[in-house]
Amino acid sequence: MGRWNTTDADDDSVVCIACGDTVSRSAAREYDKYGDRWNRDGKRFEYLCKPCDKERCNHSRDGLESLLVEAEAGKTDEKTFLRNFAELVEEDAGAESRP
Asked: Which residues, 6 or more positions from 30, have their beta carbon under 8 angstroms from its beta carbon?
């Protein structure tokens, strides 16, 4: 079987990380939080259903993962995380506008 033969994978169900719907693998798109879905070695991908994938923003994710870690994503409650994240983004935007 060739690398691109995904017959078995298409039968699996996956959960969309954006809306939480369970869809068949063939009705989903791979999402790589590091932005490099073509480098497949040793990776487990998350998935977006096709409607959520179509709606998502395709801006660069450079530095996003470290920003999420610094904002304590997954380690604190949602309100605290959002406050931390907003403060860090504002600080970063301020630093970029300085000469």
From this structure: 37, 45, 46, 47
Instruction: Examine the domain organization and report whether 82 and 49 are in the same domain.
Output: no
Record the tokens describing residue 46, joined without a space.
């998350």
Q: What is the pLDDT of residue 87?
A: 95
Amino acid at 65: E
75 & 47 share domain: no
Q: How many CA atoms lie within 13 A of 55 on its CB side?
A: 8
pTM of the model: 0.46
Q: H or E element: which one contains 31?
A: strand 28-31
Rounded (5°) CA angle 17-49-85: 35
